[in-house]
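Lecture 7 notes. Example A: sequence first, then its structure tokens.
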Amino acid sequence: MIAAQEAAAPARPRLAAGPYAGILIATVLLFVLSAILVPQSMTAQSLGAMLPAWAVLAIMAAGQTLVIQQRGIDLSVPGTVTLVAMSVTTFLDRSAAPVLVGLLFALVIGALVGLLNGFVTTRIHVTPLITTLAVNALLLGAMFSYTGGVPTAAPAGLQGFSGSAPLGVSTLAWVALVVVLAVAFVAGRTVLGRRFVAVGANPAAARALGLPAERYVVGAYMAAGLLFAFAAFLLVGYTQNPSPTLGNPYLFQTVMAVVIGGTSVAGGKGSVLASAVAALFLTQLGQVVLSFGAGPATQLLVQAGAMAVALAVAAIVERRGATRA
């Protein structure tokens, strides 16, 4: 019966159509206006600085998308990123282990954080907002306990990898593209992905069809934790010297990218690709604002305004769709 339901389900909306077309058009328009009004933001140097920042945010936004598709939210992003960044460099410095061991160390941390978030949410039934905020505080405490809050430089090998640019494009951008496409393929083109969307759209109906809804929720948090940790590992190599506040900007930015990308906060409907495009929009918007000489506070205000507009447009589109139905 499940297979029949999946076969009868309509195809997932493509990025260039439906509710995700808006962010694609807005991003293209932003780059056109940037080239006309702020040409210095489109130089090779500016784009070279923008793409690694986009890559890290796009990978994190992909993880946040999966969680929001399951009617949750992960506010432990800053703690996860900071814990991974600080603890991995400290671990590698103390143990002299290879960089790949550091990557495995980071991924284990991310998976455990996601498992904790998912377990508390599904088994103890604490709301995702409270759960992930509490876990975020726990992670920051663990970071200070292990590292003492003292930054350690990233290994030279990791710095070289993150700073390289094959074909003139940052390695981090290539990695992010592969990761986002892989996650989007699994979420949108596989049986597992279709069941994942069905659980997020209507958990009660999914349980009636025999789907283990709680497992999909826990899996979403674990996948998000892995993506946050992987992005933090790449970020360490790019920044070279992580700080105890490294993850703070990503709490707001990941949620903004998902919302502006058109993913429904009610669960189910969403697009990892649209979130990645929204991450590109936000990153370039930040570049444009900085090019005008505005400070970080102004940049946050502009990004908040962009999210407010996106929410308003989404609400209008949803009301029109309901009226037509």
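Example B, a different protein, same format:
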Amino acid sequence: MGNTPDAHETHAWVLHPDIKTDYSARAATDALAEAVSLAHALPGLEVMGETIVRLPRAHPGKLFGKGKIAELAELFKAAEVELVLIDGHVSPVQQRNLEKDWGVKILDRTGLILEIFSDRARTREGVLQVEMAALSYQRTRLVRAWTHLERQRGGLGFVGGPGETQIESDRRAIDIQLVRLQKQLDKVVKTRELHRSARAKVPYPIVALVGYTNAGKSTLFNYMTGAKVLAKDMLFATLDPTMRAVKLPSGMDVILSDTVGFISDLPTELVASFRATLEEVTAAQLVVHVRDIAHPETAEQAQDVNTILETLGLDRDVPRIEMWNKSDILDPSALEALQNAAERSDDVFITSALTGAGVPEFLDAVSRRLTPDKTQSELVLGFDEGRARAWLFEQGLVRDEQQTQEGFSLSVSWTARQKKAFSDQFGPKLVSGS
């Protein structure tokens, strides 16, 4: 099996175990649909079929019962299946036993998401973080052929590909690799910190787009910036934060940040390793939560996003607004009901990033949220305070100026942040009279 253009696509089957004892589980049909979308997000796979397997409980050795294993074996044989994607956690023992019984490769939810992340990561940091997450995951698996340490292609080697070499990877080799990758990542993070400190000097507020994967963040980002960011109807289309300076219709300049989509049950390895990728969110002055309002589980997706934002330590004082996206695919009655609900909140906007409907009103709201209250002050500057006077004019804060015998009398209009910056640079005595 491989991903070369002349090789056939890997025949895959998606299974969702619907375990009765798992009371926190989502609706099986919605969970299966998302799992199939995950499968389609990985190049080189052809999904031959999908099945919900209802279980009273998970069997420790093989996950499924004997009868179901035999029934599925016939199904996979008839469809010439080479890879079975199981939407859930599969233990190393269960994986080994099922691969032996079915004669196929098994990939659980974590392994599949890692494969997708590896295929999509573009920045150096993103690649390193995925590699570390994959190694942490692999360390929990039984020792078996490991192609990632010497891979000659994109991807992690879980699915298979051309140029693979069979390298036996024990835990010591993985640990050595993890230490090496951590050192490289530390260097990259230091570079990012330099970039961030440089950005902090830019007087533009950061607006971070967050949301469940496939909610339409990249489409909105492209609409606002004209950038050609990958915006496809597939999960995890964006994996590295993309930042652009944007001038809003109001004339305000902001930095717009498009982030990786969140997903329920994100592997713990990835939550940890992608915290740095998502930390742009914690530096934002405004967080825009983009929701696919037409999705049957939009409320559950929103809860997953809010949970991850809390995990990231996002300050509750950072303003947030919700953009209820994909209104163009709602039927009129559903749209009307949502419009009535949105009208009761100042923080909710119904839009379609695809058609642009509702986006102007949304952008006006972004400008309003980022326009802080200003206060008026009267300053008296001596003739020797030329630098301070020049700074006020450069920032566009002076409303009126009169020359006096002692110097200059200025009326200024500024935000608390601008006032503090002036005080820090030129001394509090200059503003004490204000």
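Note on Example B: The radius of gyration is 27 Å. The longest helix spans residues 171-200.
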